[in-house]
Every structure is written in C-alpha cells, then in structure tokens.
Amino acid sequence: MSDRHTKREKLVTVIYQHLLLKKDLFECYNDYYLNPQEEFGHSIIEDIYVNEKEYIKEISKYLNNWDFDRLNYVEQAVLLEAVSEIKQNINDKAVIIDEAVIICQKYCDPDTYKYINGVLDNLCSNLA
Predict the structure, then answer these.
(1) Residue 121 above 70 pLDDT?
(2) Statement: 3-127 belongs to CATH 1.10.940.10
(3) Dihedral in degrees, nearest 10, Cα atoms 60, 64, 83, 73
(4) How high is the mean pLDDT of the chain?
(5) pTM
(6) What is the C-alpha separation between 93 and 80, in angstroms, rounded?
(7) Distance between CA atoms of 19 and 73, rounded to whole angstroms?
(8) How does pLDDT run across 64-103, given as a tens digit for each residue?
(9) Alpha-carbon distance 110 to 11, whole Å?
(10) Which letter, b or e, does each residue of 104-118 get, where b requires 16 or more Cβ atoms within 10 Å of its Cβ?
C-alpha cells in the first residue's frame, strides 16, 4: 500500500470518529493523526470541516432514494473523504474512486464497494 493510501485510511478513521462520537473534526484529527501538520491530511480535514453539510447534500443526490444518515459511519466517512479530494482536485478522479473502493472492501460489508463506486462515479460524471 502506498503512503497516500495509508493516509486516506487514517483520514477515514478520523472522519468516522467525528461522525460516530459527534466530536469536533479537528479534535479527532489531532487525537488520532500521527502528523497533524501534514499537508494532505490537514487540507482534507479543513475542507470537510468547512464543507461537510454541502458535501452531504451533494452525495445525497446520488444515493438513489437512500438517505445519507442511513449509510453506516464508515461509508459516510469514505464518501466524505473522497468527495473532498475530488472537489479539491487532489488526484485523478479514477484514483480517488479506486482508493475509496479499496477502503470499502477492507472495512465495509462485502458488496458495499459497488454502491460507493457507483455513487462516486455518478458524482464525478455530473461535475464534468
């Protein structure tokens, strides 16, 4: 696994803690992230902190009559992390989606990755 992949997994964990515990995102980040000043991680957390509600609305458009709150917290965290990267143009959209799928395959129910892939793919298609 790449260093960037490991950072994404840690960010998903931070976002998961924020969502599950209803705890401040930066507090979770500072408690868990090994290097809170690291640029990649900090930019994602800062972006989600500012845009979380907007991102949830954006994601919700592509959930096919499903409510964001009905997704489990890991799925929510994966989607928020990926959408932040997409919106900031941090990496190629296909790479971001592939990374989200890999994280889902590791931490979510067996077929969840297909749903997450479809949501992110549709979101990216409509941003172009």
Answers:
(1) yes
(2) yes
(3) 70
(4) 92
(5) 0.94
(6) 14
(7) 6
(8) 888 999 999 999 999 999 999 999 999 999 999 999 999 9
(9) 21
(10) beebbeeebbebbee
In terms of C-beta density within 10 A (0-12 exposed, 13-18 middle, 19 or more buried), how is residue 35 classed?
exposed
**What does the pLDDT look like over 27-62, one tens digit per residue?**
999 888 666 667 888 899 999 999 999 999 999 999
SS3 string, the chain, reads: CCHHHHHHHHHHHHHHHHHHHCCCHHHHHHHHCCCCCCHHHHHHHHHHHHHHHHHHHHHHCCCCCCCHHHCCHHHHHHHHHHHHHHHHCCCCHHHHHHHHHHHHHHHCCCCHHHHHHHHHHHHHHHHC
Q: Which amino acid is at 104?
A: C
Closest CA to 7 of 48, 39, 46, 54: 39
Structure tokens at 51: 């845009």
